[in-house]
Design goal:
The chain is mostly helical. It contains 10 helices and 2 strands; from the N terminus they run ββαααααααααα. The chain has a two-stranded antiparallel sheet. It is elongated.
């Protein structure tokens, strides 16, 4: 257990970080105030600043904790040997995580900066970069499968990766609206039927 000294008492820093993560996950970065954070974490503002720096740094740590735990499904899926396997694993794992009753619904990396004002532009950009990084990694896997003859030569890797990223973002919204895993798994089934087998997602041909 990692502890931090606060005045005359110590608190569990990891548990405090987990609590902050869930507050950000539920309410988003900008809506979550320092007052709300300190109340949920059971500490006062000076203690938060002493242990985590400030709200911005606390959020950065919370996002990293999320990526290493609840959000690790993307990295695990990308370890699959084929792009098709990666897509199915990513969508199935997302369906499970987005609807897990043990934590807030959906994805922190998608929801954390929703409706942020320009004051939080840096936060929005950082979360977008994480999403784009995952999409780019998927695109590269698709390109590799094209090179190895596992997908049609004219497969539009960027469009295909963006399509499945869009499916995941839609699943996130559905989960936040209360849709359960069983229905999201059926969404995954439908999305996988769009995997190219002939000329689907082909680049437009010139005249």
């Amino acid at each position: 257990m990692t502890t931090a000294r606060v005045g005359r008492r110590a608190f569990d820093r990891e548990q405090a970080l987990e609590t902050a993560l869930r507050e950000f996950w539920l309410h988003g970065y900008e809506t979550t105030s320092v007052a709300a954070l300190t109340k949920a974490m059971g500490i006062n503002p000076p203690s938060l600043y002493a242990a985590f720096g400030d709200k911005r740094q606390l959020f950065r740590e919370a996002v990293q904790r999320y990526a290493d735990s609840y959000g690790s499904y993307a990295a695990r899926a990308l370890a699959e040997p084929t792009a098709r396997g990666t897509v199915e694993a990513m969508l199935r794992l997302a369906a499970a995580e987005y609807t897990d009753p043990g934590h807030p619904p959906g994805c922190l990396v998608i929801n954390g900066a929703t409706n942020c004002t320009p004051a939080a532009a840096e936060v929005k950009a950082e979360l977008r970069a994480l999403r784009e990084g995952t999409k780019y990694a998927l695109e590269q896997k698709i390109r590799a499968d094209v090179d190895h003859g596992l997908l049609p030569a004219d497969t539009d890797a960027a469009a295909l990766a963006s399509f499945y990223a869009s499916v995941m973002q839609g699943m996130n919204t559905q989960a936040c609206d209360g849709v359960g895993r069983e229905l999201l798994d059926r969404v995954v089934d439908a999305a996988l039927r769009a995997w190219p087998t002939a000329r689907k997602f082909a680049q437009p041909q010139g005249d």
